Amino acid sequence: MALVTRRTNVNFDANSVMYAPQRSGHAAGEDLDAGAPCYIKASDSKVYMSNGTAANEAASFDGFTVQAHKAGEPVALHGIGTRLGYGDASAPLTGGALLYIGATKGRLDSAATTGGTTPVAKVIGATQDIRVIRDA
Amino acid sequence: MPLLTGTLTLDEMANEADAQTRAVRLEQMGEDRVAAAIDAELATWNATVAEQIREFAEITTDNQRPDAAHGDVGEMVPLTETGRAPTQVVTRAPVTVGFPLEGWQYSIGWTQRALDRASAQRLARQVRSAEVAHIRKLQAQLKAAFYSPINYTIRDYLQENKIDLTVKRFFNADGWDIPMGPNAESFDGDTHTHYLAGLTLTNALGVSLVGTVREHNPGADVRIVIAQADEAEWTALSGFKAFVEQGIVRAAGQIEGQNLDMANPSNRAIGRFMGAEVWVKPWAIEGYAVAYAMSGPRPLVLRVAEGRGGMPALRLAATNCAYPLLADFMESEFGFGAGNRAGAAILFTGTGGDSGYVVPTIAGATFTG
Question: Which residues of B are less than 8 Å from A7 in CB distance?
Fold first, then answer.
């Protein structure tokens, strides 16, 4: 079980984001990283970064951010089919690997975690891109 | 080169060195002027690329051509006063060489707000990136066409009639019915190859390389292309005669009347070997020398799509808009095949060369082996 390295300038493929399901109109409940798996909290409808430390609401998943946001800003979460430029050359992603919600909020892990038991993304071939493979 | 997956957003533009207040915005230029500027840039780019390629490739829209092999040859029969020789007929199965056509796409993504605020320079940088990716792909496919000895079959998947095309390399001992030489020399198609090899570069290997092209192309102007890293090895050959920098007094063995281009060391003629002009080219692979006939049929054929002005043109094919996102699609369709299978020969020298030709790894190319 290991957190995968995420590049500092995560970016997205416009073609896939055009057509992937999205959830928008919610505000960020905290500062959100770009390329972070997130959930919409039931109690306040705000967006928080998913965290697989425990099998609770914080480990749920409603989509990825494609940009960073400050708390209070409107957010769009992008779902299944979204393609992101994610990996970093210093610690490249493993081709074809399934990725899970990590035990650090907003991060992905190469193996299942306590709260993240179902993969949310997959590395696309031998590239450093990932594709969201799970919807809420 | 790795994919640079991404979309131009306001965040990306915040990283710009140009302050937005100084740069001319696209909205100030006007959409029509921007489109016209892109069209003009691509037209110039495409003409430049086509001109460079015509040196070693004929450009065509043909998907295949019949081969010019000769088939069997009959025999002269002794003449008698009253006799008649039996009739003879040459038979051969029709064969063709195929030329592939592959499609390539480079997509540029924007958010509407980023596009509203983008500078003309920012747009130019995106277009330029697509142009560089285009030339790199052309070079990769060209290298595969020269350096790979392996025939392959490809479906003509961008056409209505998706026939299988047999793409041939230069003569590679594949049993081809090779035409006779100018002096009735015959070549055994099962063993005759234009992919030569040796452990180290020698004068004899260089002579063999040039001779392999000349024996099929009598009188042809032959050119040798090498990588800059191999320049010292070739200039050390006894058969090599160097070009010299302008203004320098020629020593014995150096060529009068042809100056060495000191300003462009990665793309220049450096001398002659056995009458063939030796060029350093940026696309050449270290350890490999390509000899090809400059006159007569070009060694390669570059197939392009119909309706592209006879060029492997990079064009803005479409814009997809699903607000707030836009994507522009730059496309090009082309493919290389050996049009004159006798028109070139390649020499590999290096580790493993004593066992035969080593197929190089060519990043970004398809169908290398």
Answer: none
Any CB–CB contact under 8 A between A81 and chain B?
no
- CB contact under 8 Å between B110 and A19, yes or no, is no
pLDDT confidence of B258, banded at 50, 70, 90? low
Residues B112, B116, B122, B124, CA torsion sign: positive
**pLDDT (tens digit, 9 = 90+) per residue, A47-84?**
999 999 999 999 999 999 999 999 999 899 999 999 99
CA distances from A80 to A16, A85, A135 (A): 9, 15, 5
Are B107 and A67 a contacting pair at CB < 8 A?
no
Q: What is the DSSP letter of A90?
A: T
Task: Enter the ipTM.
Answer: 0.76
The answer to whether A65 touches A35, Cβ cutoff 8 Å, is: yes
Split at pLDDT 50, 70, 90, the class of B21 is very low
Residue B235 is given by DSSP the state H
Q: How far is A27 from chain B (nearest CA, A)?
A: 18
| CB contact at 8 A, A47 and A111 | no
Half-sphere exposure of B107 (CA within 13 A, CB side): 18
Average pLDDT along chain B:
85
Nearest to A71 by CA among A24, A32, A25: A32
Question: Which of A8, A11, A78 to probe by mutation at the B interface, max B CB count within 10 Å?
Answer: A11
Q: Looking at CA atoms only, how far is residue A17 from chain B in angstroms?
A: 8
Q: Which residue of B has its CA nearest to A83?
A: B5
Which DSSP category does B17 fall into?
S
Considering only residues B117 and B357, tell me which one the structure prediction assigns the higher pLDDT. B357
B247 band by pLDDT with thresholds 50, 70 and 90: low
Cα torsion B283, B286, B288, B292: sign: positive
Contact list in B for residue A84 (CB cut-off 8 A) is 5
What confidence category does residue B249 fall into, taking pLDDT thresholds of 50, 70 and 90?
low
Q: Cα distance from A102 to chain B (closest Cα, Å)?
A: 23
Kindly give, in sequence order, each residue whose CB lies less than 8 Å from that of residue A51, ignoring residues fewer than 6 positions away.
A58, A59, A101, A102, A103, A104, A105, A106, A115
**Tokens, residue B67:** 């081969």
Place of tokens 């086509």: B50
- CA–CA separation, A52 and A103 (whole Å): 4
Using a CB–CB cutoff of 8 Å, tell me whether B14 touches chain A. no
User: What are the angstrom distances between the C-alpha of B282 and each of B49, B50, B139?
Assistant: 14, 17, 10
In this structure, the dihedral spanned by the alpha carbons of residues B74, B78, B80 and B82, taken in order and rounded to 10 degrees, is -10
